[in-house]
Amino acid sequence: MLSPRRVAALAALRARVADRMSKNVSLHVAAGQASSMRALLQAASLDNMVGSVLGLEQHPQQQEEDGRHGGSSMSMSMVIKEMGEMVKEGYELVGMFNLGDHFSSSMWLWGLLDFHGVGPRCQRLAARVRVLFGRVVEERRRINKDELHKMDDLLSYMVAMPEDERLQDSDLIAVLWEMIFRGTDVVAILLEWALARMVLHPDIQSKVQQELDMVVGHRPMVDSDIPNLPFLHCVIKETLRMHPPGPLLSWARLAVQDVRVGKYFVPAGTTAMVNMWAISHDETIWGDPWVFRPERFMEEDVNVLGSDLRLAPFGSGRRVCPGRMMGLSTAYLWFGRLLQEYKWLMAQPVKLAECLRLSMEMKKPLVCRAVHRNKTVY
Ligand code: HEM
């Protein structure tokens, strides 16, 4: 459970990142360029994750500064750039086909079938993660306890824990890496889908903007506005339904004996996974499942955090996404800010074809044109 102070600090960080992201969009607008949304959203998401997990934040005017973190000797921009490269490499590796994964649990045969060198690349990535995160952890430990208690990021919290409760270094690094790796792209992917839908459905886009104008007005949207924007919630939920970024859930079950489930025969030894994509497109559960209709969530509220299995885009139970509150709040805020400040128009045909890697992405990345709305948000 996060303390109110940490919740407020995370919200303030999200808002600062939203400002930086919006400024980047306005640079494209000023240059008359269309925006390639994926790179822009990924950069913002990495910025947010590195800030909330490691407490490292790069201020535009301080490209090479490190002073906020107790005299770190590492260049902030270098650390963030390397984190971004490592996340990208991790995604590529997870998405690569490796014959060994399908045929063998024995290491030597797995190595023999690893034609693309996935194994050695994974080992090199793991070594990079250990070195870079190891240095960040070491530097944080040098900060005195009083200062550490004032910091709101996950690493500082974990380093400040009583000694007998602390994780070993290898586990600590694994947790930090997993949070950044899993949390970075998925938020960007969700927002890319949501914006694609806004470009395709200008009527729905206007409806969100009307709600924002009415509830928030001319100042920038903040976290505390989120509960007062029900239609914006519906749009994000409908995006999660139609384009769940994590379509296969790991509530894995092993059949210990041969069994029949409905009309299917499941042999002993089979691992079964939950296909959330199929559930959220099932016409016996969702009327008109192929129609993007956010209003359906106005008619019936559905909790998407794991308690309603008709739509559990963050999973459910023991392996539920630990970043779901943060991911959802970030998506609500950034989506609201992007729509509050800009009208989004088609720059290239929007294709909704999907591509499954670690998350389910748009196969053809979204490129769209932003136009400043008349409302002044600064
Ligand atoms: C809109 C945003 C997000 C979506 C849709 C999402 C979705 C998911 C899904 C579907 C899973 C797998 C659950 C399962 O296999 O049963 C998952 C796991 C995970 N997510 Fe998220 N997630 C989001 C944001 C985040 C964020 C912001 C973080 C980090 C702060 C994060 C960290 C993780 C981690 C560490 C796991 C692995 C948990 C485990 O294996 O036990 N996620 N997420």
Q: Helical percent range?
A: 40-55%
- What's the rounded overall pLDDT mean? 90
Q: Which fold name fills CATH's third level, the topology?
A: Cytochrome p450
Beta-strand share of residues: 5-15%
Please state the CA-atom Rg, rounded to the nearest Å.
Answer: 22 Å
The strand order across the widest sheet is 1-9-6
- Annotation field: number of helices: 14
Helix and strand element order: HEHHHHHHHHHHEEEEHHHEEEE
Hetero groups: protoporphyrin IX containing FE
Low-confidence stretches: 63-67
**Which CATH architecture would you pick?**
Orthogonal Bundle
The overall number of domains is: 1
Task: Please report the first level of CATH classification, the CATH class.
Answer: Mainly Alpha
Give the tally of β-strands: 9
> Which structural category do the helix and sheet elements fall into?
mainly alpha
State the distance separating the first and last CA atoms: 33 Å
The CATH superfamily bears the name Cytochrome P450
Shape: globular
The largest β sheet comes out as: 3 strands, antiparallel
InterPro entries: Cyt_P450, Cyt_P450_CS, Cyt_P450_E_grp-I, Cyt_P450_sf, Cytochrome_P450_78A
GO molecular function: heme binding; iron ion binding; monooxygenase activity; oxidoreductase activity, acting on paired donors, with incorporation or reduction of molecular oxygen
Binding site for heme: 321
Family: Belongs to the cytochrome P450 family.
